[in-house]
Amino acid sequence: MGRLRSACSLALCLTLAALFPVSAQTPPQPPPFVSRDEDGQWTIPQKNYANTRYSGLAEINTENVKSLQVAFTFSTGVNRGQESAPLVVGSTMYVLSPYPNILYALDLSKEGAPMKWQYNPQPAAAAQGVACCDVVNRGPTYSNGRVFYTTLDAQVVAVDAETGKEAWRTKLGDINRGETMTMAPLVAKGKVFVGISGGEYGVRGWIHALNEADGKSVWKAYNTGPDQDVKIGPNFKPFYESDKGKDLGVTTWPADAWKTGGGTVWGWLSFDPELNLLYHGTGNPGPWNANQRPGDNKWTAGIFARDPDTGDARWFYQTAPHDIHDWDTVNEMILLDMEWEGRPRKVLVHPGRTGFVYVIDRTTGEVLSAKPFHAYTAVTGFDMKTARMLINPEKEPVNNRVIRDICPTAPGAKDWNPSAFSPKTGLLYIPHMNMCMDWQSSEANYIAGTPYVGAEVRMFPGPGGHMGEFSAWDIREGKELWTIKERFPIWSGAVATAGDVVFYGNMEGWFKAVHARTGEVLWQFKTSSGIIGQPTTYRGPDGKQYVAILSGVGGWAGAIVSGDLDPRDATAALGFVNAMRELKNVTTKGGTLYVFKLP
Amino acid sequence: MCSSSLRTLVLIGALLAAGAAGARELRVCADPNNLPFSNEAGEGFENQISELLAEELGARLRYTWWAQRRGFLRNTLKVGTCDLVPGLPANAEGVLTTAPYYRSSYVFVTRADGPEIASYNDPVLREARIGVHLIGDDGSNTPPAHALARRGVVDNVRGFMIYGDYGEPNPPARMLVALAQGEIDVAVVWGPLGGYFSTQQTVPLKVVPVRPAFDGPKLPMVFDISMAVRREDEALRREVDAALARRRADVDRILTQYRVPRLDHPSHHADVVR
Questions:
Q1: I want to staple A44 with a disulfide (CB 3.0 to 4.6 A). Which of A141, A212, A509, B2 is the partner?
Q2: Cβ of A386 under 8 Å from any chain B Cβ?
Q3: Does the distance separating the beta carbons of B217 and A400 come in below 8 Å?
C-alpha cells in the first residue's frame, strides 16, 4: 500500500510536539512587507497579501479563552453555504451572503452592531443553476474606501464602504456559457484581480485585472492556449524543463481541446510587493476525461507568478500535470521568508489538493520540498528532480473499471478553505480532509436531452474512520505536529492569533478555539448550523478583541443539507453525499454571523 | 377519441381526485430551449406528447421551465414544482420511470457526400474530423467520446459542450451546424438530435446508428427513454403508462415526424434527407 504518511499515533505525535515544539532553527517569518504593527482590523479575507491569516491581537489567550461568550449575532437572510469572511474596517463590519450576494454593513460602535446599510447587486437568478457546488461566495475585500466582490453571475462590483452606494460594476462572464464567479478578489497597485469559475462547463480559464478606480479592464491572461493569450513572453522563466517551450498551452493538448480546457481561477491570490509578483493557481483541466486529453494540459492545475502591472507570466509550476483526479490548484499560497539549507529563501507555502504541502521559492518557482499531509494511494511519491508526483496507475479512473480506495478524493486532501500561519509558533494550521473514494462507471445519466454514462463516485472516511483533520504543520520538517480528528470533513478556514489561540469550525456547527502549541481544544461553542466559513478577529471600537464566524452549512461537502440532496443518492454532489449522509441528522441550513468576546 | 360525455366524466374524476376547485393540471418540467425535445413555444416532440397525455388524462398542461442541466431533477420534480418529466433514461436513478416509449441510438451524421462509416472501428475515423458532445462532470462524457478515446482516436476529435451557449437557441444543435458548414466531417450525436437537426441544415445530411450498439458492457450507445415521476407517485406512473399505451400510434407518429431514429420501430431506416 502506498499510504506513506507517518504512522505515529495521535498520542505519540502530541508527545513529540510537546518535546520539540518547533525545529531548532528560526521559524519561517512573514516577509517584511507584512506589517508587524497590529491595527486590529481585518480588511481582506487573507488578512494580508502574504495570506497568513494571523492577527497580532492577544487579549484572548490560552488562559481566558474558555470564558468567550456571544457578543452579537446577525442573520444573512440566506440559508445557503456561508464560505465568506466577515471583514472589519474601522468601526464597520462587512458581511457578504451567498447568492444573491447581499453585502451588509454593521455598525460596531453601537450596541448589538445594528445594520448601517445593505447592498443587493441582484445577480441573475439563472446563475444558481450553473454554479457547480452550491451558490457560495468566498468573501469581499476592502481597499481605499470601497468594498469589492464578485457575484455568482460573473460581475465584479465596487461599493462605497461608507454609504453602500455602488461605485461601479463590470460584467466579465456570461452565465449562458457556464461562467460564474465565487472567489474573493485581491486589490493591489490600483487593480482588482479576479478570475472565472466554471471548468465543468468547458470555460477557458482566465485571470483579469480591472482598474480599481472605475472597473475598466487593464489586462486579461488566459491559462490555456497560445503564449500570447497566456501572456508568456521573454520574461517567462519557469524553473522546470517541462514548462519550457513555445505555445505549450496549445501543444500539450489534442487539437483545439485547450479552447474549452478549464484552468479556471477561483481560489486565493497572494501578492509580493517587493518582488512585484502576483501569485494565482489554475483549476483542473476539463471537460474531457484524462484519456481524451493526452499531454500535460498546460497551464492547468498549477501556480503562476505574474507581473501585476502587465499580467506577464514570470514562472509557472504545475502541481498536477495531466490531472486525472480533479485536483485544481486553488488553495492558499502563504508567502514566508525562511532559511533553507543555510540560505535565506523567499518561499510560497501551498497545501495542495494533491495532498502535498509544497514549499516553493517564490522568486524562481523551484520546489524546495513537497511533503504529504494526507493518506494517499493515488500517488506513490514525489520526484524532487522533476518536481512531479509519481502517479499510481492502478488508481487512475478508467472507464469500464471499478477502482477502490482512491485517496485523496476529487476535492483533494484539502479544498479551498484556507490555512493560517502563526509567526509565534512558526506553524501552519491546516484544516483538511481524510477521505478516500471508490470509482466506477455509472448507470445512464441524462443532460440536455442526451443520455450518457457517468462516473459513479462514492466517498468515504479515510484511515481511522474520521473525515476531517485540523493539523499543525512544521513547514521546515514537512511533518504534522498534532492533529484534531473531526467526524466530517473540515470545510472552514482557520485563523491564528498572538494569544496562541487558533480558531476553526466544523460541519456539525462547533466553533473551536485550540491551543496553538498543543492542539488542546480550549473552548467550543455550538452555532446554529454547520460551519464552512472563514473566522476573523478584530479589535472593536471598545478596545476589546472579538472573533467572528459565519455559520451556515453548504458548499460541495455540505450540499446534502443546503441543497436538500437525497441521502439515498450516494453519488449526488459528485459522490460527496455517500460520505455525508449523516450530516442531515446533525445540522440544518443556516446563515448566521456569530461574534464572540471575553466577558 | 373519447366522447364529450366521457371526457366530462374523466374531468369529474380528476376533480374528485385532486379534491380542489378547478381542472386537474398535468404539471410537466421541461427545458425551455432544447429542440427537438422541448422549448417554451411548445415546438418539441416532448411538448407534443405531453399535450397528448394531458388530453388523455383530461388535464390542463402546465410547464415549469428549467434548463436540463445538473440539478434539474433536484430543482424541479424533487421539490414538487411539477409531477412529470417527459424524457429520462428508463433506468434513471432516484425517480420512478414509465415503460419506455422509444428506444434510440447514438448516430453517425455525415454530409450526404461524406464518408460512409461502418463502425467505431472504421479507419475513416482516424482521419476524419469528428465532433462529439462533452458533458463536463468529472469522469463523465457521452458514450461516443469514450468509445473514440478507447481506440486512441483523440487528435482529430473536437468537443462541443452539450450546454453550449444557452443564450442561443437549442445549444446542443451547434455541432450539426458545424457539420453542415464543413468545420467537421462526422458528428456523433444522440439520435433524436441527429435525426431532427439533419433536416434543418443547408446541405443534405445522412444519419446512421453507430456500431457496435454496446461498446463493451459498460458503454451502451442505445438507450430506452421513459417518462419519470417521483419515486412515491406510483398512481401517476400507472396513469401515464396506460395513457401512453392507449396513444401509442399517436406517439409513434410524432416521433416519426421529428425523425427520431428508432431502434424499437421497424419502419425507420437510415435515410438521406434534404
A1: A141
A2: no
A3: yes
The shortest C-alpha distance from A280 to chain B (Å) reads: 23
Dump pLDDT digits (tens) for B1-14. Answer: 333 444 444 444 44
The pLDDT of residue B137: 66
- Give per-residue pLDDT as tens, A103-146: 999 999 999 999 999 999 998 876 666 655 578 999 999 999 99
* pLDDT interval class at A456 (50, 70, 90): confident
B-chain residues near A176 (CB < 8 A): 165-168
ipTM: 0.84
Does the distance separating the beta carbons of A293 and B94 come in below 8 Å?
A: no
Closest chain A CA to residue B161: A202
Closest CB from B34, B141, B168 relative to A289: B141
DSSP A308-358: TTT--EEEEEESSTT-SS-----S--EEEEEEETTEEEEEEEEE-TTSEEE
Interface test with A, best of B40, B79, B106, B140 (most A CBs within 10 A): B140
Residues with Cβ within 8 Å of B253's Cβ and at least 6 positions away in sequence, in order, are none
HEC string of chain B?
CCCHHHHHHHHHHHHHHHCCCCCCEEEEEECCEECCCEECCCCCHHHHHHHHHHHHHCCEEEEEECCCCCCHHHHCCCCCCCCEEEEEECCCCCCEECCCCEEEEEEEEEECCCCCCCCCCCCHHHHCCEEEEECCCCCCECHHHHHHHHCCCCCCEEEEECCCCCCCCCHHHHHHHHHHCCCCCEEEEEHHHHHHHCCCCCCCEEEEECCCCECCCCCECEEEEEEEECCCCHHHHHHHHHHHHHCHHHHHHHHHHCCCCCCCCCCCCCCEEC
Output the nine-digit C-alpha cell for A205. Answer: 480559464
Buried b (16+ CB within 10 A) or exposed e, A245-282: eebbbbebbbeebbebbbbbbbbbbbbbeebebbbbbb
Q: Which of B92, B162, B223 sits opposite A448 (nearest CB)?
A: B162
pTM: 0.90
